[in-house]
Amino acid sequence: MKYHIAIFFALAFALSGVSGAYACTSLIACGRATADGRPLLWKHRDTGARDNFLYRVDVPGRIGYVGLFNGGDTLVLDEAWMGMNDAGFAIMNTVAYNLAENDPAWTDREGFVMAEALGRCVTVDDFEALLDSLPKPMGLRTNFGCIDAAGGAAYFETDDTHWQRYNVDDNEYGVLVRTNFSESGTDGTGRGYDRYNNVYDILSEAIVTGSLTAASLTEGVSRSFYDAEHECDMLDGDESYVADEHFVPRPSSTASIVVEGLLSGEEPDKMIMWTVLGYPPVSPVYPAMLHVIPAVLMPGNEGAHAPANEAALEHMPHIFPADRGTEPRYIDAGYLRPLIEKARGESLENYSQGAAAR
Questions:
Q1: Torsion angle, CA of 243/198/42/185, rounded to 10 degrees?
Q2: Do the beta carbons of residue 135 and residue 2 sit within 8 Å?
Q3: What band does 326 get if pLDDT is binned at 50, 70 and 90?
Q4: Confidence at residue 22, expressed as pLDDT on a 0 to 100 scale
Q5: pLDDT the model gives residue 325
């Protein structure tokens, strides 16, 4: 097994492209924290890769899965940035800037590890065993989040040589959030504390009452310009322009995805990956399942670019107009507000239809 993994990483190093180490916001909720009893695994992705797509991967001798991949001109599919597999296992990550820095010769292996995990892991415990088997240094500096069909749910705060596991069920409310710092890392350093506070403020009532849904995340957080420091949504007023500071959605945001896991006894084909591609505030959510992925989320004929992502990217020069300066960036709030409402309306309809089709 270790020999196989070593070969895998040698190939991965040679093929590596865009780094996934940027900034993301995430949450894991146990079944007791959600409205319908299904666990949730959420990632609001920020990255230098401007677009991404979903694709199903089937390799002989491995578990089939649906993963999130960077958009581009090829379908190498060697780095997955989130995904769910035919065994009911799902995984995502956020970079953790307060963990030990990588060996400079071996960095940004997170996407390769998640692709490997999706092809091999059935349970959260399997993923821990995978981490144990990897040659060191691992080239990791991240918070991995996992759920499985047996109700397992955990974060693994992972650096080159070590990891610390946090079981979500140990939390009072069955909910954990990670942005770009780790609880086990150097205290007071890292990034994303403002986004961490935003998520907890926005979702406080749903967390306390155990009523979280996938829509709480894609519609309630990823389209929100709430700032915990000011205790308000900065788009709620009538300002024409708003400084882009402290929000979950950022100019680098390229996806918001929630894997809705399984009730006890359900088959993995009941899992749904609720997917927003492109800048999340303006793009609608679509339900993807293990064997049914909407065409709008998959790479089109003109290279590996998803139509939903391309449509969202068309709005970016208007949302962040260059003539407003760069320090800080400014959002054209008048342009953005109606796009958010349109996307939210389409998403709520898709949620209704997608859940009915399960």
A1: 100
A2: yes
A3: low
A4: 66
A5: 64
DSSP of 260-306: E---TT--GGG-EEEEEESSGGGS--EEE-SS---GGGS--SSSB--
pLDDT > 60? residue 1: no
pLDDT in tens, 241-280: 999 999 999 999 999 999 999 999 999 999 999 999 999 9
Q: What are the residues facing 286 on neighbouring strands?
A: 275
Asked if 92 and 126 count as a contact pair (C-beta separation under 8 A), the reply is: no
Q: Which amino acid is at 111?
A: G
Q: What average pLDDT does the segment 32-44 reach?
A: 98
Residue range of the domain that includes 220: 2-356
CA distance 57 to 258: 19
Strand partners, 42: 27, 258
Output the domain CATH number for residue 198. Answer: 3.60.60.10
Residue showing tokens 């205790």:
231
Instruction: Give the chain's largest Cα–Cα span.
Output: 60
CA distance 74 to 299: 10
Amino acid 329: pLDDT: 87
Place of tokens 């089109």: 300
CA atoms within 13 A on the CB side of 92: 28
Cα-Cα-Cα-Cα torsion 191, 329, 281, 98, nearest 10 degrees, comes to -10
pLDDT at residue 200 tops 50 = yes
Tally of domains within the chain: 1
CA distances in angstroms from 44 to 24, 176, 222, 330, listed in the order given? 6, 14, 7, 21
